[in-house]
Structures are given as structure tokens and as C-alpha cells.
Amino acid sequence: MQKALGFLPRLQFADGTLDTLKWLALLLMTGDHVNKYLFNETLPYLFEAGRLAMPLFVVVLAYNLARPGAGANGAYRRTALRLCLFGVLATPPFIALGGLLYGVYPLNILFTLLVITLTTAACERAASGRPLYWAVALLVFVVGGALVEFWWPAVLLGLCTGWYVRRPNGLAGVGAVLSLAALTLINGNAWALAALPLLAIASWVRLPLPRWRWLFYAYYPLHLLALWLIRIPMAKAGYLFLI
Q1: Strand-pair partners of 21
Q2: What angle do CA 57, 59, 63 make, to 5 degrees?
Q3: Which run of H or E residues covers position 118?
Q4: Which candidate among 56, 65, 130, 147 keeps its CA 20 to 30 Å from the CA of 112?
């Protein structure tokens, strides 16, 4: 972290480090899902470690959306379209794996990231002199946040992180920390807060990892599909899944 104006540190990551964080989040998410969908959540350490996956994904997304010129060069639109497309593709295996309220609720994590992207885009337009977009941002935040995994704390984490990256300030920093703390009510533990020291360390490390632009988008629905297919022979062999 490099110093910004005043005493607040500026959040900066090398591109390779960002991709390392994304790989780590994919690994943690996969372990969490293997534990949930194949082992009936009998491996608590995988559940606890998995609580870091969503915060890492959200921070990486928010950081990329906060890059200078992201809105002007169409990054918001491209990101939103990809998240929507692969979120839809992930929905059938996500539903088939079970564990959802009424069989369909909430929407998967890609839609959480989509809500963050759309709200961020609306906020930027509002800040550029079109105040009616503040109402759009609020509507997307309230309605979208009610429909997706991890709800409003996850969306608020993305918004506060992006705000802090653009302009380090105490309100954004406190908002991000409180968002992570609020996840305790959803996760049943405070492991999401462990993302803070991890991100602090990552900001000082430069890792030359190449960027695989489509990896995350494709991996999410594919790994859910693979888990669902693995459960079929397990079920036929008599294994009882609790969700």
C-alpha cells in the first residue's frame, strides 16, 4: 500500500498479484463447494477457508472497475455482459445441486458481482453530472442485493472498495470493514475478516502471473456442473446428500 493524501494508505496491486488473488479465491471456493455438495459440510476447515473466496472475488472486481477510464473504455458493459451470460449458464447446475430457498433463491455469486458492476456504473454516471443515476444506483443496490448470494454486505463491500481505490477516505474504509463484519451474520463466523490482512500483504507483493481473462467466468459454471455430475454415481451408490 502506498501513501495517499493524508494518512490513509492507497490500495494498489500489481496485475499478477490480482490474478494470484483470483486463483486463490477459485481454490478456496472449490474446496468450499466440494465440502458442501459432496461431503455434507463435514469438513469445517474447508468451510471456514471458503469464507474468504467471495471477499477476494469482490475486491478484485471492484479494483478492476476502479481503474482510470474503465467506464469510458466500456469495461463496465463488457464485465456486466460476461457476468450475466455465465451467471445464467451456472444457474441450472447451481439449482440442481440444491440447498436453495424455494429451490431457486438466492441467485449465484456471478449475479452478486453483476449487481456490484451495475451499481458502480450508475454511481459513476451520477458523479459525472447526471444525478438521476443516484436513484438508479439505489434501486439496483436494494433490489439486486436482495436477490443474490451474500446479499447487501457483499454489494456494499464492492462499492466501498471501489470508492476507496478511487479516493482513499475513512468512510469507504470503514464501510468495507463493516461489510466484512456483517458477513458474520450470514456465514456464522468471522472468517471473512481474514481477507483484510491477506489483502494488506498482497498489496506489497508483485507476482508475475499471466492473466487468463475468461478463466473465472468459464470455471464457475463448469465446476458446478462437474460437482453435479459427480453426485449422480455417488447417489446411486447409496450416498445420502443432505442438500
Answers
A1: none
A2: 120
A3: helix 109-127
A4: 130
Cell readout for 192 is: 471473512
| Positive or negative torsion for Cα 147, 165, 136, 74 | negative
- How distant, in Å, are the alpha carbons of 34, 62, 145, 187, 200 from that of 54? 16, 12, 14, 11, 17
Cα 157 to chain centroid distance, Å, stands at 9
Distance CA 67, CA 159 (A): 14
Enter the pTM of the model. 0.95
Q: Which of 190, 181, 126 is nearest to 154 (CA)?
A: 181
Inform me whether the pLDDT recorded for 3 exceeds 60: no
The bridge status of strand 9-10 relative to strand 2-3 is antiparallel
Quote the CA–CA distance of 158 and 56 in Å, as a whole number.
10
Dihedral sign for Cα atoms in the order 46, 52, 54, 57: negative
